[in-house]
């Protein structure tokens, strides 16, 4: 027998949702239909976060307890209205990734089991020059959202001193992401250097709370400022992206005033639509102005232009220090 389905009208498109009652989030009984309808309900905000950006997909066709498919390439067989953009990976290989240009794209992908949307920090028209600086405030063992919150406010203070506006969102877990729109004038290496310089300044101001140490053995119980989120082909969950966790949390934009006492557990697939209907996208002004990173590049030079390690799957980069765990380096010496 053919699979049961429903049809949803999304803008000018009709999206077929197959097996709408399939349970994707067993702990809360959340279904595929809920997931698709969620993305439609927050579509304006999600579209702002994803618009014209090459995007990777985390798909769970059988729900979060089934197999994960991390999809970087869109299949050749797809609707002719679904756009793609070509990206180049650190290996030099390329792929045609999803490029979201309308809310129907979100619904279509959610029907394929996409739970998380992970955009590149570039636009399709200029994939070599990021237009977003990403500051990933990442709790380590022994720390949590409260410590991340404290570090995020240090992030805000440093940005304000530079005359830069940063926009905060929950990660959908214990962390916080702060996003800054930047002028697309610099390549990935330069933007990553800016991210390193910024992370070092936060670490300098809050040394007992924040660290730039790439190696986990050196981080201790501190918040890691993951500067490598600005490297090519590294992605973060988009604003309004659901996360593949049992209670279906959502990476939710917050005002800085809200962040003072926010609890990330309050933002999920069932609460965020009502919040969005009431408040809209609280970070809707993010595209109003793009900032320069020249002061951060000056800080990078001020600090001796000392690079930090790339992730292990990247080719060795010019000026990069030895990519070896410090304890192993001591053993070898």
Question: How is this structure best described in words?
Answer:
It is built from nine helices and 15 strands. It is of the alpha+beta class and 333 residues long. It has a six-stranded mixed β-sheet with strand order 13-14-10-12-11-15. Strands 5, 6, 7, 8 and 9 form a five-stranded antiparallel β-sheet that branches. Strand 1 and strand 2 form a beta hairpin. The longest helix is centred in the middle third of the chain and has 18 residues. The relative contact order is 0.15. The model has no long low-confidence stretch (mean pLDDT 96).
Layout of secondary structure:
Elements lengths: L4 E6 L2 E6 L4 E3 L4 E2 H10 L1 H8 L3 E6 L9 E3 L12 E5 L5 E6 L3 H9 L2 E6 L12 E7 L6 H17 L5 E4 L5 E6 L6 H18 L4 E2 L11 E3 L27 E2 L1 H4 L12 H8 L14 H9 L23 H7 L1
Parallel strand pairs: 13-14
Antiparallel strand pairs: 1-2, 3-4, 5-6, 5-8, 5-9, 7-8, 10-12, 10-14, 11-12, 11-15
Please outline what is shown here:
The chain is an alpha+beta fold and 333 residues long.
Distance between the first and last residues' Cα: 67 Å
The succession of helices and strands, N to C, reads EEEEHHEEEEHEEHEEHEEEHHHH
What's the number of extended β-strand segments? 15
Quickly count the helices. 9
* Biggest sheet descriptor: 6 strands, mixed
- Return residue spans where pLDDT drops below 50 for at least 5 consecutive residues: none
Q: What is the global morphology?
A: globular
Protein structure class: alpha+beta
The proportion of strand residues reads 15-25%
- Alpha-carbon Rg, integer: 20 Å
The average pLDDT value, as a whole number, equals 96
- Strand order across the largest sheet: 13-14-10-12-11-15
């Amino acid at each position: 027998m053919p699979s049961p389905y429903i049809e949803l009208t999304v803008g000018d498109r009709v999206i077929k949702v197959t097996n709408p009652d399939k349970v994707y989030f067993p702990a809360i009984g959340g279904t595929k239909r809920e997931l698709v309808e969620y993305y439609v309900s927050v579509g304006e905000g999600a579209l702002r976060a994803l618009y014209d950006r090459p995007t990777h997909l985390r798909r769970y066709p059988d729900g979060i307890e089934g197999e994960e498919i991390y999809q970087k390439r869109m299949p050749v067989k797809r609707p002719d209205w679904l756009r793609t953009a070509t990206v180049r990976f650190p290996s030099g290989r390329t792929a045609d990734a999803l490029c979201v240009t309308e809310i129907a794209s979100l619904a279509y992908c959610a029907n394929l089991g996409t739970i998380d949307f992970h955009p590149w920090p570039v636009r399709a028209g200029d994939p070599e020059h990021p237009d977003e600086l990403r500051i990933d405030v990442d709790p380590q063992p022994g720390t949590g959202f409260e410590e991340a919150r404290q570090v995020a406010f240090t992030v805000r203070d440093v940005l304000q001193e530079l005359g830069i506006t940063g926009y905060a969102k929950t990660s959908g877990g214990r962390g916080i992401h702060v996003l800054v729109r930047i002028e697309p004038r610099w390549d990935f290496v330069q933007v990553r250097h800016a991210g390193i310089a910024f992370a070092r300044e936060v670490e300098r101001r809050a040394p007992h709370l924040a660290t730039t140490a790439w190696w986990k053995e050196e981080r201790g119980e501190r918040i890691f400022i993951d500067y490598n989120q600005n490297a090519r082909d590294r992605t973060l969950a988009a604003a309004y992206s659901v996360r593949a966790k049992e209670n279906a949390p959502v990476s939710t934009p917050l005002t800085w005033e809200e962040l003072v006492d926010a609890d990330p557990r309050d933002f999920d697939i069932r609460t965020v639509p009502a919040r969005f209907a009431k408040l809209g996208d609280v970070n809707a002004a993010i595209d109003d102005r793009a900032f320069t990173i020249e002061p951060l590049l000056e800080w990078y030079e001020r600090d001796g232009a000392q690079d930090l390690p790339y992730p292990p799957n990247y080719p060795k980069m010019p000026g990069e220090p030895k990519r070896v765990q410090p304890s192993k380096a001591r053993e070898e010496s």
